[in-house]
Amino acid sequence: MTQLNARQQKVLWATIRQYVSTAEPVGSKALIEAYGxxxxxxxxxxxxxxxxRSGLLYQPHTSAGRVPSDSGYRIYVDKLIRPAKPVAKxxxxxxxxxxxxDGSNLEGLLREAAKxxxxxxxxxxxxTMPTGEAIRLRHVQLVQVAGNQILLVVVLDxxxxxxxxxxxxxxxxxxxxxxADLDHDLQIxxxxxxxxxxxxxxxxxxxxxxxxxxxxxxxxxxxLESAMVDLSHRLQQAQIAISGLAEVMSHPEFSKREQVxxxxxxxxxxxxxxxxxLQTDPDIAAEASPLQIWIGSENPLAPMQRCALIxxxxxxxxxxxxxxxxxxxxxxxxxxxxxxxxATANYLSETIAQVA
Length: 356
What we know:
alpha+beta; three-stranded antiparallel sheet; about 45% helix; elongated
């Protein structure tokens, strides 16, 4: 990474702050007036020239001032700022006051947190739902709905329930056309599945051994196994609560219709692509810092290469459940955005832990 002396750091910091504030190329005179730099315009221009040759600033036009490059933002984030504590406190207060979660609907909690984060940050907020190895099963229940249709209900330790409707073969439980014994069979099967799967991750569904079932219940096995594997696959698909598209579209960087269309398409249809950037993989998160920042060209997804993505993880005890992030233009006040993301992630971890 480029090594800067104290004056160069000060000028880079001031240039980025000014550009974030105005969205206009920055000149030496504006920096001296706005930030009280105790040097001449010639000195500031000289320092800005050094920063430009180092690839940290650039001139969009020959006669214009300078704007930060992605590399300039990277040094700003890594070396020149700290998260803004007042912003973190404001976000935590808003979440605490506006959300009253009773522990029964985790998805509702996450979606509400995303709305509040988007409003307070001014950027798109993204919150990933718990998936895969992040969640464990607590209880399984089979309920007769009508005729040979039964409902498979799975209670997860994330305080959510998932269900799937199953149509059993016509002969199951219908000896002599009588369905009276089906409820009894379903209760026994529910107890068996709960005993086998309680505390296990979703991947355990695929490895479940049906051999321990009595012969009388083997006729249910094929339909139940297929339904449970389908449910497991569904729950392991990327699901991201997204809020705040209107907020981010107000920034001048998104004035071009095609750019907006590509970004919106990614947010709506590209959640599988987005998830790795949001640290939803527990193995990756365990090896890296909870805070991840992708700036401009660092983003591997083309529609995001004029954007910055900041994310941090939330969880329960030592279990990673998901991630919280904001997506906005690279011209972002990073100290505020980082503070907002970390405060939201901390709030979710603490809130979920209280009802676990």
